[in-house]
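Work Package 4 report. The design task specified in the project plan requires that, given a folded chain encoded as structure tokens, an amino acid be chosen for each position. We show below one input record used in the internal validation round.
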């Protein structure tokens, strides 16, 4: 096993250097890939297909909580391709728990609501 380089080494790399990755398996078949873009933020990805089911989601929330408690900072999860301005869920230090920030856009088996007004043909002359 290779030694993990220090944060100072990773963050002082040349601008044209490839961004280093650290792969962590907090549980079997749950991979988190940390990327060291800037010193002020912890940036990592998980494959949402690995979070299917309540047990897997609970494991992920425990992972977010462990990171948040260790660094005493919020740990936020953004949507794929997001810019970090609209987190979906995350660990909140003040509450000491993971909370949902956004409600799902699509809910299976939910009735479709159509808010489009139909023209009133009787009142048009």
């Amino acid at each position: 096993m290779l030694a993990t380089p220090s944060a100072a080494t990773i963050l002082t790399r040349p601008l044209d250097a490839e961004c280093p990755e650290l792969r962590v398996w907090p549980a079997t078949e749950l991979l988190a890939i940390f990327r060291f873009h800037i010193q002020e933020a912890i940036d990592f990805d998980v494959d949402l297909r690995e979070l299917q089911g309540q047990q897997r989601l609970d494991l992920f929330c425990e992972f977010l909580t462990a990171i948040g408690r260790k660094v005493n900072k919020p740990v936020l999860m953004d949507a794929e391709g997001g810019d970090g301005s609209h987190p979906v869920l995350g660990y909140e230090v003040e509450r000491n728990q993971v909370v949902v920030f956004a409600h799902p856009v699509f809910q299976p088996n939910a009735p479709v609501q159509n808010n489009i007004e139909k023209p009133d043909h009787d009142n048009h002359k």
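The first helix runs from residue 7 to 11. Validation will be extended to a larger panel in the next phase.
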